[in-house]
Every structure is written in C-alpha cells, then in structure tokens.
Amino acid sequence: MPRTRRFEPGLRLAGLALAGLGLAGLCLGAFSASVRAGSGTFDADHWRRVFARPEYAPMPTGNATTPEKVALGAMLFEDPRLSGDGTVSCATCHQAELSFTDGVPRHEGHDGQPLDRRTPSLWNTAWGLSWFWDGRAAGLEAQAAEPILNKREMAGDVRRAVEILAADASASRSFARAFPEDPTVTRDNILKALAAFQRTLVSPETKFDRWVKGNDDALDQDEMAGFRLFVGRARCVSCHTGWRFTDEAFHDIGLPGTDPGRGAVLGLKEVDNAFKTPSLRERVWTAPYTHDGSLTTLEDVVDHYADRVIERPTVSADLPRRIELNATERAQLVAFLSTLSSEDPPRPASLPARTIALGGDAQAATTFVGQKNRRFTPGAVLLKVGEVLRIVNDDTRVHNVRIDGPGMSVNSDAQNPGDTVTVGFDQPGRYDAICGVHPEMRLTVQVEP
Amino acid sequence: MKRRKIWTNLSTAVLIATPAATQAAASPAQLAFAIEARADECLVQLAQHQGHGGAAMPATRDGEGEGGAAELPASLHLARGIAMIRGHLLIGGELIEAGRWKEALPHFLHPEEEIYASLRNDLKAYGVGPFQTTLKALSQTVKAKNKEAYARARATLEERLAAAESAVLAKEENKPYFVLETALETLQQASDEYEEAVENGRIANVVEYQDARGFVYEVDRLVGAVADALAAKDAEAMKALRASLSDLKATFPTPMPPQKAVKDAGEFLSAVSKFELQLGKFR
C-alpha cells in the first residue's frame, strides 16, 4: 500500500528529495564499485542506504492521488471505449495478472504487425523522471494520451471517448466524484485519473527489502553471493541503482538491433541505441526482457552481459566490456535478481477484489465460508433452497470453487486473495464443493427444502 | 474402496486410542493395517513393488507426489516428479486448446504447489538450476488467459524440464529400463488420483480424473520415446506394454470426463499391474 501525502508543498519537497537521492545513489554506486574492484570489501550499511525504499509515493501538484480518482483511473485503464474501435484498453497490453505487461516480445499492433518495442511493466512508474523506453514523455499525465492516439495501439480519438463517457451516467458520476472542483468528463480528467491510478502501482516489499531493513538472514548464500557480484565485479549497480534499481538514464547495452532509441529523441547520434535503464523490481514476472523483448529469461540477460555485448561506439561507458562470470556466478546473479520480485505474482492493492457470482443474487448471501490455510471453514454448511452461499478467499493463495454434480455443476474462475465466490442453490440435496487448485479442500453443502 | 479414507480413519483411531502417540510412533501399526487393507483389494502385487505400497499415503495428504517419496532413490524420485509435472502440463494444455482456461488453471498450479518442493533437493543433487519461478510465471499466464504469453512461458518451462531430465538420464546406465521404472512410478500416482476421482461408477472429482489422464498420457509419451530400444530387447513384452497402455488410456476418452466412469479404481489398478508385469523383461 503506497502512502501518499495529501498536502502539496510537502510532496514537492519529497519529490525533490527523491530526485536528489537518486543522483546521490548513482554517484555513490559508481564510487564504491571502483573502490571495491581493488579491495574486495563489502559495506553492507552503505548498500542498505542505497537500496532503501522511500516512505512516500511522489505526486505532482495539480493531480492529488485521491481514492475516487484512483478508482476512476482503474476503471478507465480497463475501458476499451478509449480506443477507436472499442476493443482495446490499456489493460490489453498492460495486463494486471502479468505485472502490467503482456508476456510477448512485442505486442501485435492494430495493423497486425508487432509494435516497435516491448510493453514495459508499470510497477513504480510514479518515481520515473521520464517515460517510454526512449524517455520521450515528460509526465505520466502526458504519457497516457499517447497510447490512446497511437494508430498502432489504441487508434483512439479522445474527443469521441469524452462524448461516449459523458453520455454514460455512471461514468459521469465517477468523474464528478473524482474531480469535485471540475466535475465533468474532459480529456484532462481522463489523463489525470489514469495517471493517478498508475501512481498507486507500487511493487510490494520482497526478500531483498527484508535484507535492506537489517535482516542479515533474509538472503541465502547464493543470493548474497549474487548481490555481491551485482554491486561488485559485475558492476550492474552502476546503472541499476536505488530502490527501484534504475538510474533513470539512457544506455546502449550492446544489443543487436537498429532502433535508435534515445538518439532519435535528442537528435544525437552519440546516444543511438540507448534506452532507459529498466527497474529490476518484479522482473521474474515480466519476461521477455529489454526494449525489443529479445532476451527470454533472466539467465539469458546475464549471458548477454557476460558474452554477447556488441562492440560499437555508442555502448555505454558505464558498461563493463567483458565480465568473466562462470556458471555458478551467473546462477547466483539470477538468484539475487529473483529476490527483487515477490514470491508470487503480485497484485496491486488498488485493484478492487472481484465477486464471481455462480447463480443466485450475490447481494442476498447469508452464509459465509472462509478458505484460510487451504481449508474451507466451516467445512459443512446447512442452507435452505434459494439461499446463497458466499465463499471468501481470506487465504494468501489462489483458490477456486467447484461442484461437479450430481445435480449441479459449477466452476468459478481463479479466486485471488480477497475475491469472493457466491453460489445459489435452487434444489435440495447434498453438494460436495472442492477447490480445484487444492482438491483436498472439501466443503459439504446440505440444502434443505 | 478408498484407501486414503481407510488410512485417515485408521490414523485417527490410533490417535484416539493413544492420545500421546505421535504420528511417527503410531506408524508401524498403521503400516500393517494399511497393507492389509490393500491386500483385501488385491493390491498385493503392487504393494510389493519397492515396498512403497504400504506407506504410500501419510496420514494427512500433503499433496500428490509425496506418496512413497522417501523410499525412492533420488533419480527415480526426480524423474517421476518431472513426469508428473509434464502430465499436468499435458492435460492443462489440452484444456487450454479446448478454450477451458478455468479448468486448466489447477493443473498449472499443482506442479508448483504440490510437487516442486519435494524435488528441490534432488535438483540440487543433480546440479539442475531451480525452476520454481518458471512454474509460477507459467501459471500466471493461464490465470491471465493469455495464449501468446502462455505459449512462451510454457516453452521456457519445457526447456527447464528437458534440462532436468537429461541431467537425470545422463547418470543412468540402462536408460530404457529407467524410463520404464519412471513410467511405473507415474502410473502408481495416476491410480491414486483415479481412485480419488471415481465414486459409485461416476467421476466425482473432475480434477483428479484429469490428473490421472495427464499422467497416463505422459507415460505413454515416455514409453513411446524409448519404444525402439525396448522392442529390440523384447518385442513381445513391448507389445504387451503397449496393450496395457492402450487399455489405461481408454479410461480417459476425453479431457472432460464421460458421464459414466469407464473403469472402477480396481480395474484401473489391475491394468497398471499388467504394465508392471512386463518390466522385469527389460532389466
């Protein structure tokens, strides 16, 4: 859960302080890497400061992150009416279940051809200094207009989208709640709501954060060895620094390909092939990697740095030309990278929990069953015909509810933690429900006339 | 009919009789009972196989793949684990092809939740890199119902499984025989699943039916891959193996179960034992 500050001068300060910290991190990172090359010491306290998570999410003046705006933004993010033909939403490419990516090297565009670049994950974009792989957008608000208008992405027409949303009473009400000072559906308000929602996509604390907070045992031996390589001999930290593991700068890391990247934005040949250093948070869930999706696994990425960097004048000065890494060391680096990801695919707290209704009126449910610790609790319930059962996932893992006859066959979708399944029963009898994911979870439902 | 139920009831009974008894202390008695219970069901032959019939199920069922795990040599344990994971992928993939994402999901979550943990040490022993996150990365694509992402994540996992499989096979002298042993172990798991699935002539638990189907079809694929070597050794026995596999496959006409169960649990087990009978001829 991100904590956002509500009064703006404070926030501005927080933003400035953050930017400052980022720079400090960069210099310190480079400095210590060069010091260590000779000495081989490891200053844990120093690295704990470099990688400490911030307390607050930044937010710009003029677009406070309010719950109403976030809720509206979450809705718009999934609303295909923002696209030209009403079929594509932001979530089409930035799928929440896939850490806001799409799992392919390059998403197919409207013209059936792959887009030029890989869909990036949207975790922690609130802390960005520029957006897109080449940094061409200067703010999240400005950024959001691009995919909507882009002929190959959503091919939308913002004016038409505004008309459609304004004609929808429920959408208009949501806009009014989100923007009390300007309660209308406008282009600006659409973009502000989308940006506000995206600022809440903060990746959860992971194993590595427990180490940062002082728990020396949080990382196992291999992970720790990988971390030492990361900040030491492999010099990854010269670009992947700070709690998000990015310097927000643009580098050519010697991948094949002809996309000029930052070079085209600045009109400078010297920075051709340079792309924004991606964050390394939650990367276990966002394969394939890099701006063109050409590296399929984290192992593949490490092999690239060790063996396959293309020599050309634009290659970043911060990139070591040859790193000797044996198989064990490569595995250790990957083990370390994995500690920057949640142990299960993370889900943002700002996305509402789902209710999956399997017959009956979900609102009318009177009997509740939990699923904590892989157990339906209570394990047996007694209902009257017509009553509706509500099964809430109060566990930490994904569950499911299914009944395979006789007399009734239902199968809920995946039930994430927090999601609810409601089941209506119109015939008396005994029904055995199980969780399809954990078939040993049993629930007996006795329905009386 | 339900071995697990007998087992669970027994252990509760033992615990009630001697409240202080820990599971471990109670287990010799349980073991004897369990073997007897199985003997009643004409399972003697299987129970003799490597002695893991009797101890097949701990008192609480902590997921598939744990049955008899302790007694299997690491090679076989790992190979069986890989086969079971592939069995899950196989049935899961069939369901996805049929557009049944919801039905497919459990089969992608099971390998990570129920099998992987028991393989961790084996993988280390064989110098195979961990692939737990690869499993989870695959199941997230199924949850997302994203076919392109699924295809990619699945290909990545298949590579990992193939690497693990070659690491195990590299150390085996008689590879075709080892594959048969793996096949038999996997079939035993299939019969456990199938037994859980059938109740009074119908498939009461669809997921377990599907597990069993996936395992049997994976075994069919495993055996198919070494068929030439096996036939060269004993063509007759190979024919018999094929016949028992066809018989086992016929238990599962479709990924979604038929109205009426094709076999009861006893018939399924006896088909497995026909497969087992041929094994000695390939040693």
UniProtKB/TrEMBL annotation, chain A:
Organism, as annotated: Microvirga arsenatis
GO molecular function: peroxidase activity
Name this polypeptide is given: Cytochrome C peroxidase
Keyword Iron: yes
Protein's cellular compartments: Cell envelope
Domain Cytochrome c as annotated: residue spans: 68-169, 221-341
Cross-referenced PANTHER family: CYTOCHROME C PEROXIDASE-RELATED (PTHR30600)
Main location: other
Keywords: Heme, Iron, Metal-binding, Oxidoreductase, Peroxidase
Automatic annotation (TrEMBL), chain B:
Signal peptide region: 1-24
Protein name: Uncharacterized protein
Residue runs in coiled coils: 147-204
Organism per entry: Microvirga arsenatis
Domain of life of the organism encoding this protein: Bacteria
Keywords (A to Z) from UniProt: Coiled coil, Signal
Organism lineage: Bacteria, Pseudomonadati, Pseudomonadota, Alphaproteobacteria, Hyphomicrobiales
